[in-house]
Amino acid sequence: MQDVIDEIKLELTGYVLESELEDEQIGKAVQKELRELERYWDEITFIKVPFASCIDTSGWDEGVSSIHGVYRTEPIGNAGTEGFYDPLYAQQWMMFSSGGTMYNLQDYVLNYAAWSTLQSIKNTISTDLSWDEDRHNHKLYINSYSIRPTYISIAYIPKLKSVEDIKSDYWIDILIRLSTALTKVIIGRIRTRYTATSAVWTQDGDKLLEEGNNELKELREILRTNSNLIQGAD
Fold it and tell me: Residue ranges of the domains in the chain?
């Protein structure tokens, strides 16, 4: 946070001019823009939890902005996985063994085609790992039509609680630019609150106010048009 504040002060004052705002007040502007940035931020974090058809998320969802997806942590379709066999996996060692023949390969290809069709039918009737979130009651409901995994990974976008939560240089730069523009608006309003008509010099409040508003508008449009955030959906 102090690094961000120092960079804003460097741009606005060059550490030569005196600013109307203290570090604490600039920090409040940074916090405001941090909350605004959260709606565009799309960096995903994963959490691994035991699988259940209904997962209680009350232990960790306070820090979740939105859930992005649900994924298996264990492969399916390999021999030895709870009695479930992918015929092509079994054919890998049969085809190259001394007893392997093209007849066996053709037989297994046909079996695989039938198995693949069956999986497609199952997925049409009941989509594997489709999910719905009940944020109010802290529940995540997950459907599993095939083998129930022991654990699953939940991909989510966390909330931004502090500047330290941002690890990407790109998003740090966006935050600094947003905060600098907002600080310009604040200082511009302070300097244009009163106008001395008989003064031999004038403040640059109008210029700062215009610059800040234009920069905020430009940055918000960039974020809006380039946002890759996908809100939680099946």
Answer: 2-41+160-226, 45-158
Instruction: Tell whether pTM > 0.85.
Output: no
147 within 8 A of 82, measured Cβ to Cβ:
yes
DSSP letter for 56, please.
E
Q: Give the residue among 225, 221, 211, 224 at the shortest CA–CA distance from 180.
A: 211
What confidence tens digit (pLDDT) does each residue in 67-110 have?
A: 989 998 876 654 444 444 555 555 555 555 555 555 566 666 67
DSSP labels for 122-157?
Answer: HHHHS-TT-EEEETTTTEEEE--SSPPPSEEEEEEE
Residue 177 tokens read as: 């630019």
**Cα–Cα distances in Å, from 5 out to 2, 91, 149, 194, 216?**
5, 63, 47, 27, 18
To which residue do tokens 């905020």 refer? 216
Dihedral of CA atoms 185, 186, 190, 193 in degrees, nearest 10, equals: 60
Q: What is d(CA 188, CA 205) in angstroms, rounded to the nearest whole number? A: 4
Phi and psi at 208, nearest 5°, equal -60, -40
Per-residue pLDDT tens over the stretch 13-51: 888 888 889 999 999 999 999 999 988 888 889 999 999
H/E stretch holding 4 reads helix 2-13
Gap between the terminal Cα atoms of the chain = 37
Would you tell me the crossing angle of helices 102-125 and 87-95 to the nearest 10 degrees? 170
